[in-house]
């Protein structure tokens, strides 16, 4: 579906390397992985907190669905970097785009539409999930192409606003230099923006939702995380990335949820660039290889009691954070997630800020939450509601 373009599914080679290098350098210029991006993340968090306060007052103790608020705040961070704008959480068109994105990722893997990868002509079938997938793709395409067109019409090469502007400037520069066959085209830009928009929204949103779901399922751990935040940060200032090293149990809790719910369980498909012998098996050149990150994170040979939620496994005897090479929620190698640092920043700031301000619990008389999730291209938690009360 991505026509072998973009960042996520494009084949490895000189074009992919050039495009990824440009995107990574440009995003870093706009704050990716740096403390300068913290205010952008906190801006979205302020909206979430205000809205949760309001919902708490009007709900009368009933459960609320956190997903729309979380996904909007997360998406606005990547949108500010690549599209130069933020969207209000009540923006109907943007809310529709986020919902379509979730549905599209689910269809791609968890339905007969997965067969498109083997029989591409199935994409054109006029019924069922095949028709729905085309509709989802068409709506997201129209949304993103309108934004690219607006950037093209308002472009000021002396004052780039975001990655889209920088890409258009690079594209024009290569055209002026007479570089024929350049991979920097508006068509390629579209697939890059689509990859970054979807990858930068869905994965982190699901990770935050998983963490909060585990907090309501294990209130004792929630208490311990909040006690650590109170001790280090207090109640009167917002947590900062500079607090990260002083909150090892909070960090360990985030990592343990990521281990159990690895958000892209089968990573992304790779391909053998040459025929390889591995442990007695011959893997021919061109073979698609799917790394099973889920199995790595649940491997009993490297994790004690791997199916049990235990944040302490990431702490040493002195309570300091342990780094384990078998913990790879962002993948490894040359195609490791480009947004790893951004995701870590968002997860830390969102989890600490929300747990500092609120107590989360399950509504009364509700069954235990489903911790299996919904499997698509990413692993999302099933819809759930929580009661949110200010901690004072």
From TrEMBL:
GO cellular component terms listed in the entry, alphabetical order: cytoplasm; membrane
Keyword Zinc: no
Keyword hit for Oxidoreductase: yes
Chief location bin: membrane
Location of the protein in the cell: Membrane
A family per Pfam: p450
A GO BP annotation: xenobiotic metabolic process
Molecular function per GO: heme binding; iron ion binding; oxidoreductase activity, acting on paired donors, with incorporation or reduction of molecular oxygen, reduced flavin or flavoprotein as one donor, and incorporation of one atom of oxygen; steroid hydroxylase activity
Positions annotated to bind heme: 337
Cofactors named for this entry: heme
Keywords for the protein's UniProt record, in alphabetical order: Heme, Iron, Membrane, Metal-binding, Monooxygenase, Oxidoreductase
Residue stretches spanning the membrane: none
Family classification: Belongs to the cytochrome P450 family.
Protein name per its UniProtKB record: Cytochrome P450 2U1
Organism: Collichthys lucidus
């Amino acid at each position: 579906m991505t026509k072998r373009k973009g960042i996520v599914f494009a084949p490895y080679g000189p074009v992919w390397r050039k495009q990824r290098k440009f995107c990574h350098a440009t995003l870093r210029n706009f704050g990716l992985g740096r403390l300068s991006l913290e205010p952008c993340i906190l801006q979205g968090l302020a909206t979430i907190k205000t809205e949760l306060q309001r919902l708490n007052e009007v709900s009368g103790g009933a459960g609320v669905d956190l997903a729309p608020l979380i996904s909007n705040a997360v998406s606005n961070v990547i949108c500010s970097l690549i599209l130069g704008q933020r969207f209000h959480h009540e923006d109907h068109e943007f809310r529709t785009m986020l919902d379509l994105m979730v549905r599209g990722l689910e269809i791609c893997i968890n339905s007969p539409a997965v067969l498109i990868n083997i029989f591409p002509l199935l994409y054109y079938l006029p019924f069922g999930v095949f028709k729905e997938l085309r509709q989802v793709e068409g709506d997201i395409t129209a949304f993103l192409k309108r934004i690219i067109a607006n950037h093209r019409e308002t472009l000021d090469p002396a004052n780039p606003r975001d990655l889209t502007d920088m890409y258009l400037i690079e594209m024009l520069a290569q055209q002026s230099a007479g570089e024929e066959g350049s991979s920097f085209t508006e068509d390629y830009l579209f697939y890059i923006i689509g990859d970054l928009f979807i990858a930068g929204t869905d994965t982190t949103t699901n990770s935050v939702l998983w963490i909060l779901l585990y907090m309501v399922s294990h209130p004792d751990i929630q208490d311990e995380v909040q006690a650590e935040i109170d001790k280090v940060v207090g109640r009167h200032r917002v947590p900062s990335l500079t607090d990260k090293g002083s909150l090892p149990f909070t960090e360990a809790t985030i990592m343990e949820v990521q281990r159990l719910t690895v958000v892209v369980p089968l990573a992304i498909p790779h391909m053998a660039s040459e025929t390889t012998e591995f442990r007695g098996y011959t893997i021919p050149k061109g073979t698609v290889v799917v790394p099973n990150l889920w199995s790595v994170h649940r491997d009993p040979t490297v994790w004690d009691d791997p199916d049990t939620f235990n944040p302490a496994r990431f702490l040493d005897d002195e309570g300091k954070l342990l780094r384990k090479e078998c913990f790879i929620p962002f993948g490894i190698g040359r195609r490791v997630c480009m947004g790893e640092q951004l995701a870590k920043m968002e997860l830390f700031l969102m989890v600490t800020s929300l747990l500092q301000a609120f107590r989360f619990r399950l509504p009364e008389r509700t069954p235990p939450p489903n911790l299996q999730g919904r499997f698509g291209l990413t692993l999302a938690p099933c819809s759930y509601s929580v009661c949110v009360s200010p901690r004072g």
